[in-house]
Design a protein that fits this description.
seven-stranded mixed beta sheet; alpha/beta; globular; 195 residues
Amino acid sequence: MQLRDELSFEVLEVRGQPRPDHWARVWPTSVAMSRWLLDQPLGSLGAVATELGCGMGLVSLTLAHLGLRTEGTDRQPLALAFARRNALVNELEGFSASVLDWRSVGGSPTALIVASDVVYDAGAPELLFALVQTAGLLAPGGRLLLGGPRARTELLEVLVGLLCASGYAHEVQARPVEWEGRSELIDLHLLTRPV
């Protein structure tokens, strides 16, 4: 049974602003990542997950829908307020939200981390590497699912390269997404931390 055929969420976004913050809308990468998660065999994702840069919370909502206890993190408290509201409106249990600045280490190691379209600043690859690997936010043997549009892959590839150089196993899959009148190709990278 493909759950994505039956799944829809009501998601509050910030619209009507000339340049809304990155967190204030749903992006094609979060759609592709959510669909990928829904296509995985039930129970294969584990019981707990953390999302980095959750924004509106679509990927976190998907994980909570699948029964995972999910912590959505973002550096913007207002984004977390929207994510909490979206979880409440969709009657999802098992979702929590907390502020996480990638420069200050925090959080418990988890076996599944997801990050959708968060590598767009020049310093992001090194910050994420330090958070996931050096600070140990990803547990040994844990999986990291990263996604980003094929149209801008340079910084995401830097992060993937750093992780692969540290012994992570790596798989990549391209997923097309029709979004706001255009087709976009999204790369999803699944990296497994060595034990």
